[in-house]
Amino acid sequence: MKRICKIILARVIIGIIAYICFVQPNVWRYALETLSPSYSTIDRIVNAKGVILCRERLINSPVSGIMMKIKNDFTRVSKGETIAIIFPTIEDYNNYIREVNNVINYYDNAIKEKNNMIENKKREIEKTYGELNRASELLNSLVANKQDITDVLGKISELNNRIDSLKSELIGLMKELEGLKREKIHKLANLRENAISSNTRVTVDSSGLISFSIDGREDIRNAIIEKGLEDNTNLKIDSLVREPKVIEDSSLVKKGDVIAKVIDNLEQFVILEVSLDGKSPISHSSYHLNIDGKDVGIEFIKWVNSYPKELWLCKMKSPYYIGPKYISLSINVGTVEGLVVPKSLIKEEEGRYFVYIVNSNSIEKRFIEILGGNEREVAIKNVDKDELLFVD
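The chain above was modelled as a monomer; its predicted structure follows.
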């Protein structure tokens, strides 16, 4: 019995020693959550911000004075058209506005009065129709009772004649109303033409969309279109558009002041600052973007790589006019192959990326290279397929 106990005790001791020496050091590996990367192909999505560009032709005031617009914002104009006039003084401008307001007030009152007369005439016609219906009902009753209908027939004839007369009067009033509206338009047009002919005209020397909103960055945007990126590699996207100054009617302008611009809406460009998804090269051919819900194609003119960003200058292929504005979007730039891991496992240290590798007896901090990917997963280098990544 003692011998059996000694054997059991010896085996227990041997088991404890084996556990301490061989099992316990590796238990931690099984307590960790790990991931084995798989080789796959995934979509590459890059984030970009930028500005849509158009050629913008600035228009300067030829003289000093008070400006009045002839064209509304974003009206299409042709070369040589008048877009505004400059009155010499504020008194001249106020006199013109006073004449315009007098015409508007006179005709608006006349039109209002004529509309009231028309409404009254319609009510009178409706009332007469009511009398006619009652007379017709009386006629039917007299006929059914075989009574004399002479007086009722006379009444019905009189009401029908009255309705015809009222309708003629209504048609006459409506013609007079249309005449008043035409007169108002004609009078205002004459005042406008007289103002244009007797004051300094501001004309355009190119075709496009007129805009009286000036932000002072037009020359910078034009330079990017004309000169490309060679002299503009350090430009700040956020500085390309700013809050515009709107030139309103009655604005005092000085000779040489920029008061408007003509936007060439037939040709649009876009400059994009792209945050690269990795070091695998991107194809610089053409892509499709979603801008304001519209499918817009782009073709590359020039690009500058300065990892981790690229600067793109592209020509837009779109039937839609979007106009100078900031945009922020995601772009699908194709696919990438490699060992794919969740993006959440990637850590960053001073511009370098690393993951934690679980080895047989330690956790290793391994620097890697990101080839590309998207918001959820990325393809990486410098990790073998059979290695385990620590999931924290």
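The longest helix spans residues 90-144.
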